Amino acid sequence: MVTINSATAQQIDVSKVRAIEHQLDDVMELTDTSILKIRLREVEEACILHPTLINKVRMGIIYHETALNLSFFSKTTYKGYAEKSFKTLSEILASADTAKELLPFIASYRASALSLVAAETKKLTLLGEAFSLFKDAAEKYADLSYLPYFLRGSVAENLPWIFFSKRKFAKQDFQTIVLKYEKDTTYANWKIMSFTYWAWAKQHQSIKYRRQALKYLDMAIRLDPDYKAGRNKAEALKLKMMQ
User: What is the pLDDT of residues 156-208, one digit of tens each?
Assistant: First the structure.
């Protein structure tokens, strides 16, 4: 496994990371599959015409989104995209030309892509390796980017109960994002916070947390007026909890 040098991580400029996030935002957390299919074609074409580092990272991320949203519902067409994402991002990570500001994105999506490979191939050893990569990414980049926590939490919340040692990260990671966002609202954008507030509430449905969960669901809904992030799921969960 390729890992990142800690000294390199410490030299990263947060403002440059935020700027790169704006360049990548249109390929991250895509919930509309029709838009995803269009974006996939556009990104691949752009990477062929202009194989820049940022375009290669965009391709690695769009492959991840394709695997997450399309491959598990297809027997043929979209199979293998998790592996394509992992390989693409691994190649970029191994390149000496890769800008250090890209590392938070590469490391986080690479770990998540490997977890998707594990799910598709049913190889549990790969899931363990994915969480090791998540740990490495969180230790190095979680102060710069929400991605290590957000993607690890998203993987953890969807694991079967037998993976309780990994499922715990769902509660921990989304809680951490909320706390960091409260201290610095530039830590994550509206889209991520809409998903995060919904995910937090999903993990805290007991009576003990009911009031806070409903508050966060309202925040998830308010942040997403056009239904492009967590609003649909937040509204459904709020209705369930109020019943």
Answer: 999 988 888 999 999 999 999 999 999 999 999 999 999 999 999 999 999 99
Q: Are 28 and 61 in contact (CB under 8 A)?
A: yes
Spatial neighbors of 28 by CB under 8 A, at least 6 apart, are 61, 65
Which pLDDT tens digit goes with each residue over 85-110?
999 999 999 999 999 999 999 999 99
Torsion of CA 127, 177, 72, 83, to 10 degrees: -50
Residue type, 98: T
Closest Cα to residue 55, out of 90, 81, 30, 92? 92
Q: How confident is the model at residue 71 (pLDDT cuts 50, 70, 90)?
A: confident
pTM above 0.70, yes or no: yes
- 111 phi and psi angles, rounded to 5 deg: -65, -45
Tell me the CB-side half-sphere exposure of residue 23, using CA atoms within 13 A.
17
Interatomic CA distance for residues 71 and 177, integer angstroms: 28
153 and 115 Cβ atoms separated by less than 8 Å: no
Write a three-state SS string for 6-58: HHHHHCCCHHHHHHHHHHHHHHCCCCCHHHHHHHHHHHHHHHHHCCCHHHHHH
